[in-house]
Please model this.
Amino acid sequence: MDNKAQMHIDYLISIAIFLVSIIFVFSYTAGLFTPFQSNSDEVTLIADRISTNLVEQNMSAADPGTPNLLNGTKVTDFFNISNNDYESTIDYYGLNSSYLRYEFNITLQNITTGNIDYSTGKQLPIQGNIGQTKRIVIVQNENTGYESRSLLSVRVW
Model:
């Protein structure tokens, strides 16, 4: 009669328990340093909220079949208003409060030519956390019907 234990199964179970405990320790210690991390997730969410608001409401061509279709006149109006009255645009998007203030930079770059068609907001800082969201949109000129593919970049810090 064989009095030895099943070595292979005991070894596999012990290795599995060891690996699970190592994974638990690493995941727990990563959570210890979460309060010391930056606010980059927060500003990225804000940038995403602003880009969604711009594309789906403020500059939308109101075509339910094409959600990223922008009205050219509304695009021009938004960038003109934002360049002329930056503070009211900050207030409109909820970036200014008594506790925190965020700045933004929004650009619309033509994909085919590579030129920046529109830009508004402050100049990007050299240091700090910058949240960024990019969306590919189609800008339609109502007069000519011409459509251009563009890249909308929203940066918040």
Notes: The mean pLDDT is 84. The chain is about 40% helix and 25% strand. Residues 135 and 152 are 5 Å apart (CA to CA).
